[in-house]
Amino acid sequence: MVKKVAVIGSGIMGQGISQVFIKQGFDTLLIDISDEILENAKNSIADGKYGLARLVQKGTITEEQKKVYMKNLSISTDYGKLSDREFVIEAVPEIMNLKLKVMESIEKNIPETSIIASNTSGIMISEIGINIKNKSRLIGMHWFNPAPVMKLIELVKTPFTSEETINAVIALANEMGKEPVVVKDYPGFFTTNFVHSWLVESLRLYEKGIAGKEDIDKMVKLGFGFPMGPFELMDTIGLDTMKEIGDYLYSETGDERMMPPPILKEMVYAGYKGNAKIKMNSKGGWYDTDKL
Asked: Are residue 82 and residue 9 in the same domain, yes or no?
């Protein structure tokens, strides 16, 4: 049974995944490129919007329990500390060269029996793991934001992922109170294809002037029971991230429906990459400009 885990990348997803691990009692190592980034991530896990402090305020856990959970977390910039980890998941930005470099560093430093997972939202696991020697232990483990709240985990198996690896990660997800669903490796898997198609279609209908941003969000929430409308969701995901996903899906599948619409590109090129509280170096999102 897995007891020692590691998360590579301390952004929003890396923080959320780490929080779930430490709350479940796993010995959790969080790795990133600088001590400053890691300290900020540690503080966010403790006291951020979706951090443990929120659970204290709700009365779900006590302040003492929060302190105990935080003791399960260690931070480092040293990949050498992966030498005793039984499960490692990368949660770095969706940049292929970066992911390949991280995967290489993971495999160099972990035991032969350890599992290597990727939290990518859409890049094929086979592509991310192209340089992994033992592909039977490679799997996609796609979490959803915010990780401490969302129940679904999309598990992505390649043709070479072993049943032992799949079953181990299913058990790991279940232990954390998540609901794992296994899908085959494909650009965008199921969830990213589905969500991206919905968001792109919302943009196209908006471009045609059928309804405004606020009204589209309102109709989706009230009519379909979604917690967020498409424009609110895009601001949370990041408009630049959505553009990158669309570019990738189109390049891999040739499906023109996946292409980022011009209006999305215009926002990104103008510096509007999403909610400025979430996205670094962003002027804001759809609700912060009336130019489009």
From this structure: yes
Instruction: For residue 135, give the amino acid letter.
Output: K
Instruction: Indicate the pTM of the whole model.
Output: 0.90
SS3 242: helix
Rounded to an integer, the average pLDDT of 93-118 is 96
Tell whether 131 and 268 lie within a shared domain: no
Q: How confident is the model at residue 280 (pLDDT cuts 50, 70, 90)?
A: confident
List C-alpha distances in Å: 121 to 71, 147, 185, 219: 29, 13, 12, 26
Q: Which of 184, 205, 240 is the last residue of a domain?
A: 184
Q: Which pLDDT tens digit goes with each residue over 189-222?
A: 999 999 999 999 999 999 999 999 999 999 999 9
Provide the domain count of the chain: 2
- State the amino acid at position 268 in one-letter form: V
- Distance CA(222)–CA(211), nearest Å, equals 15
Indicate which CATH number applies to the domain containing 221: 1.10.1040.10
Regarding whether 213 and 117 lie in a shared domain, the answer is no
Helices (H), the chain: 12-23, 35-47, 52-58, 63-71, 96-109, 125-128, 163-175, 191-207, 213-224, 230-237, 239-253, 262-269
Does one domain contain both 221 and 110? no
**How far is the first Cα of the chain from the last one, in angstroms, to the nearest whole number?**
52
226 pLDDT higher than 70: yes
Q: Residue 31 in 3-state DSSP?
A: strand
